[in-house]
Amino acid sequence: MLRLLDANVFITAKNTYYGLDLVPAFWSWLETQARLGRLASTDLVYNELKNGGDDLANWVREREDLIFHIKSDPPPVAAHVNSIATWARRESYEPHAIADFLDCADPFLIGAAAYLRCVVVTQEVPSNSRRKLKIPNVCRVLDVPCENTFEMMRQLGARFT
């Protein structure tokens, strides 16, 4: 099953445990998995990452077609984003939380995963707060599987030796 990666998968890996200079095997593994059709991300995640002015931004720009090729604008994706907004209002999320969530790549990542029947990969964790929508909470509502980077790596059999 295809996995769609959230921006924080790349950012957290770069800033912590899998720095581009520290564990290049992780980044090569991502490329290999993308070539095998096992993982990808969206054009909007690409847009969030490409202008970072760092090594990650350079890495992302060089792999736009390989990894960030899932489009965020098909009508079925928009329908899922609308259902997310309706659900969030019904669940009494604060208006600024809904606006912030709808103004980033996250709802489109989830909408694309729902449309394409993919797994979302994120470092976010569920929360009961009404001040911020979290990807795992929204995925649960749309019945979209969600896992973190380490779960993805285990599921795809990653091994760095």
Enumerate how many helices there are, as a single number: 10
Question: What is the terminal-to-terminal distance?
Answer: 25 Å
Helix content range: 40-55%
Query: For the report, how would you describe the main beta sheet?
Result: 4 strands, parallel
Biggest β-sheet: strands ordered side by side in the sheet: 2-1-3-4
Strand proportion, as a percent range, falls in 5-15%
Principal-axes shape call: globular
Order of helices and strands: EHHEHHHHHHEHEH
The low-confidence runs, each spanning 5 or more residues with pLDDT under 50, are none
Question: Could you explain the architecture of this structure?
Answer:
With 161 residues, the chain is an alpha/beta fold. It contains ten helices and four strands, in the order E-H-H-E-H-H-H-H-H-H-E-H-E-H. The protein has helices spanning 7-15, 24-35, 43-49, 55-61, 64-67, 75-90, 95-102, 106-116, 135-141, 149-155; strands at 3-5, 39-40, 119-121, 146-147. Strands 2-1-3-4 form a four-stranded parallel β-sheet. The radius of gyration is 15 Å and the shape is globular. The two termini are 25 Å apart. The mean pLDDT is 97.
